[in-house]
Structures
1.
Amino acid sequence: MGAIRVQQIVQKNGELVIKDLPVIAGQKVEVLLLLDPSTAKSKRPRLTAKDLLNSGLVGLWADRDDITDSAAYARQLREQAQQRPDINGLDDGNS
C-alpha cells in the first residue's frame, strides 16, 4: 500500500477537507490522522491539587481494615495489572 502525506491546519472544529488527491472513484483508501501533540487540545481539563483533594480519591482506602499499608497495596495492584493477559485475552508470552 502506498502512502500520501498531507499536512493541514484544521480550519473548522470537526472538519478536515482534503482535495486534489491522486485517487480515483471507487478506489479503496485508508485515512489515518496523526495529531500534533504541541497543538492538540485535550477535552479533559487538567486537575489541580485542590481538585484532586476534593475528588474523593485521596483517602479512598482510609476506612478499609484489610489494607494496613496503602503503598504496598497499590504496588501489589500495579504488579497484578502488569501480569494479566493482554486486552484480547491472549497470553503475551511473559507470564
2.
Amino acid sequence: MKNIFIIINAAILLSLINLEQCPAAHIPELPKIEKGRVEPSLIIESGQKEKTQREISAETKFRIPVETNLLEKQTKTKLALLDDPEQLAIKYNALGNLYEEKGMHDQAIAAYEKVLNLTPDSAMAYSNLGNVYSKLGQLNKAIAKYKHAIRIDPRAAFAHNNLGNAYYAQKNFSKAIKEYKIAIVLDSDLFYAYNNMGDAYLHKHLPNLAIRYFKKAIEFDPSSYIAYANMGDAYVAKACIPEAIKAYKKALEIKHDYTSCLLKLANLYKKEKDIAKATFYYKNYIKYSNDGKKIETAKKEISKLEGLK
C-alpha cells in the first residue's frame, strides 16, 4: 500500500510540473510484524463504535509539497483539460492538498468532495476530508470520515492513524492507542504512529511504554525532534531528570529554536539550582518565543536567579 501511494504521488508531482520547468523498567519487546499478514482481531468494524505534540501531521507522508501560486494555476488549468475521471480525481485531490496546506479549508473540502463525486471509493479522499474537519475542531465529523475511509479500505494504515489522532484530541486515549496499534500492524514503517502511540501512553500515565515507542519512532526517523521532546516528558514523569535533560538537548540539536524544550530545560535547571544554565535557557526561550505572557514570566525568573548569585 505504501509503495502504491509513493508511485501515485510521484506521478502527480511529475504531471503538475511538466507544464513548465518550475524552478527503564523491563518491557517486552515489540512484536515482530510480518508484512502482508494482519491479525483479523485487530481490524475493527467502522460502524462500531486526539496536546502534547501533534506537529507530526498524520497525512504528511502522503502529501505533495506544492507551494507556489504558479503550480496552483497550472493545476486549475490542467483540470479543465482532463476527461478521465480517475485522472481528474487525482488532480482535484492534489488541489485539495494545496488548499489545505494554505489553510483554505472550505476550498479544500470542496476539492475533496469533487474527488468523491468522481471516485466514490477513494479512502484517501475521505481521510483527507477528515483531516480538514479535524483541523476545524469538528472531531465527530472527522471521525465519521475516517471510519468511512476504513470501511472502504480496512488496510488503510493512514486512516487508522488519523482516526487515532481524532480520538486523542477527544482525550479518549484507549481508543487512540487501539487505532495506532492497527496502523502499525498494517504498516510497520509508519514512524509517526509510534510517536503518537507513545504520546497516548504518556497521557495514560504509562511512561515506560511511552519511552519504548518514542525510541521506536526515533529509530525510524532520527530527525524527529518531537519524539525526543516527548521522550524527555516521559523521563520527567519517571523523575529521571538527567535522562530528560539529554532528550530535550537532543531535540534542540535538531531544532535549536524549539521553544518548548528551551523552557522545559530552563525550568529543570532552575530546580537543579544550576543558575547559569537555567539563565541561559530562559534567555534563549525569550529570544525565540512569541508568547508574551511566558516571555514575561521567563524574564521574572531570570531576575530571581540573578538575585541568587
3.
Amino acid sequence: MLPADVTPQDLASAARNELKTLSKENAEQVARHLAMAARLIDDDPQLAHQHALAASRSAGRIAVVRETVAITAYAIGDFALAVRELRTFRRISGRDDQIALLVDSERGVGRPDRALEVGRAVDRAALPVEVRVELAIAMSGARLDLGENERALQELDIPELDPDRAFSWSPGLFAARAAVLEELGRLDEAAQWQRRAEIAEDVIGSRDADSETLLVEEIEEIEELELDDDADEPPSAPASEPDDAPTTVQDEVDEILADAGIDADGDGDVEPDDADENPSAR
C-alpha cells in the first residue's frame, strides 16, 4: 500500500522525465513507488526494496526503475540481484553512474577479480568526481579481498585525496585509506587518517560540500602534516584550485581558519562558522 501523502512530485524531476513513455496513470503509480523507495532506503531497506520491485513490475524497461531495484537490493545484501540489475541499468541507460556499486556488488558475490576487471574497463576521466572517488574506494576494497594491501593503498592515491580540505567524498575516502593503512600495520598513519575522516565529517555536517571547501585538520596537526614521510605524502591539489588557495604553513594558520570559517577552541577540535562560509575552490 502507498501512503496517501506520497505523490509523483516527491520523485526527482529527472527521474519523472524517464517515466514519460508510460501511460499517465502508470507513470504516477511508478513514481510514487520510487519515491517511497527513496524515503525508506535508510530506515527500512527491505520495504524500500519491495516498493522498487513493485515499480519494476509496471515499468521494467525504465533505467531509473532498474537502478532503484539494484540500489535497494544492494542495501539488503542481495548482491547477485544487484549485479544483474546494475548490468541491465547500464545497458538501458548507457551510463556508468553506478559503476562503484557494481564493483562492490561483484565483491559481495565473492568475485574480486571480476570486480577489478569491471572497474578497469571504465574511463575514469569521464566519470563525475564523486563517482570516481567511490570507484577508487571499491577498487581498493577488491584489492584487500585479494590480499593485495599495497596495491589497495595505491588505488586510493587519487587527486581527490586532499588531506587539508573537506569535500562530500572526503570522509569516506579518508576512512578507506585509514583501513588500508591499518591492514598494512601502519597504525600511527591509520589513526591520523581516521581522525581526518572524523573531522571532515564534523565540518561538512549537512552542508553541500560540492559548493564549498573547508580546512579539516586540527591546529596541532598542521606542523605534523608537513613532516609526513614521502611514502604517505598527500598528492598535489587539483589543477582547478585557485592560485591563492590556503596552505597549511604554520604562520598562516590564522588566515586559513578565517578564510575557512573554522574556530579553534583550544582542545584541538574545529567547528564550522556558519556566519562566514568559505566559497568553493573546485
4.
Amino acid sequence: MKLFQQLLVAPAALGLLSPIAATANEVNLDKVTSEDLSAGQFADYETSTKIKAKVTFNVGALNTDHDLVPAANTDTAGMGNRLTSGYVTKLDVNTSFTGEDRLYSRIKAGDMAGTPWENTAYGTHLSAAHNSTDAVAVDKLWYEFPVGQFKAWFGPRIEGYYMLASAPSIYKAVLKSHALGGNGAVYGSSTSPGFGAAWTQPTENRSDFRWALSSNYHARSGNNSTVGLLTNDPAAKWLSKLEYGSPRMQVSIAYAKNICATDTTCYDWAGYNSTSVAGVTTGDSNAIGLRAYWKPEEIGIIPSVQVGLDKTDVNNTETGTEVQTTTAWMTGLTWKDAFIDGNRLAAAVASPTIASDIRGGGDDGAKNGLTWEVYYDYKLNDGVTLTPAIFGAQNRVDGNANGHDDYFGGLIQTTFKF
C-alpha cells in the first residue's frame, strides 16, 4: 500500500512543481494550501499536466534445457521450469508549458530483476518487464519541443528509438526481442543521456504519403564525468532513420554507429547475441536496418504485416576467431478485432542476431536459431486487458555457456490502464 501511495504522490508533486515555481515570486509557498489550488490560485498559468497509469501482472513458466542464470547466483539460479509471477507499475507524466512541447517523466516499479522475464541474453525478456526489485525509480525523463518544421528532444534518461519521426514498427510485441521490427544492433538501445531531432514533410492530410528524417545520439556514460558525452564512450550510439510512407504503410532505412571503446563489447547488440563465439571483443560497429509495414484498408482476415532486416559490420580489434558480420530478421502479423471487436491476435517469428561471418573461419552453431510468439489480447473493458501468450526458441544461445538450447514458455498477462 505504501508503494502505491508513493507512486501516486510522486507524479502529482511533479505536476504541481512547475506552476508553483512560476508564481513563487508572488505567493508565499509556506502558506499555499489545497484550498488555494482548488480555488484556481494558479489558473492563469498555462501549464497542463496529465498522468496515465499502467499496471501489469504476469504469471507464467518456461520449459528450458538449462537454467536461465549462472548457477553461481544462488538467489536466482534455476529460474527455468518453474511457475513464476511478477508485476510492473508505470506512471506516465506529461507536462506541456506551451501546448506544443512536452516534458515526459516515466516512473516505474516492479519485481522482475533476476527472473526469466528480465533476461535479455536468453531472449525471454518481456516488453512489459522492468529490471527492479520493488524500488520506485524515474525510468524515463526528457523534454521535446518544436523548432520550425523540426521536432527536438533532449534529456538525461532517453533511448534512441523515442527520438524518431515515427516508430519503425507497428507490431506490439510480448517478447522485447520482437519489438521495433527486431530489437538488435540498429534499434537496440539503453536508457541514457541523449539528444536528437526529426523532420517530417508537411502534408495537407495526415493520411498522405510523406518523407521524414531523424537523427539522434545517446551515451550510457553521459552522466559520468570521467567519460561524458561525445567521447569514445564504451556504450554510445548515433542513430539515423530515413522513412517514406503514411500511417497505413511505410518503408525505412536506418543507420546506427555503435561506438565502443577498445577492448569493450559493443553493448547494443551483445545482449541479443546468438553466436557461438562468446565474449567477443570489438571496436565500433556499423549497422543497417530495413523496416517495412503495411495495414489492410479494411479490418478482416488479412493481417497487418511488419518485417525487419538488420546487418552489422563489426570493426574488431583482436586477432583470431572474431565476429565480423551479424545478421537478424523479424516478421510479425497482427489481426485487429480478431473474433471480437477490440481484441487482437498476433504472431511473430524472428532470427536472433547471429554471426554470419567469423574471422578465422568457423561456423555459428546458432545459424538456424529462431524465436517466436503467439498471443491474444482480450479486452475485458476499456481499462483491463487479458493477454494469454505462448512463445519459444530453437537453437538459441543463452549467454551462460550452456550451449544452444530450445525453450518453450507461456504466460497470462493482465494489464490495467487508468
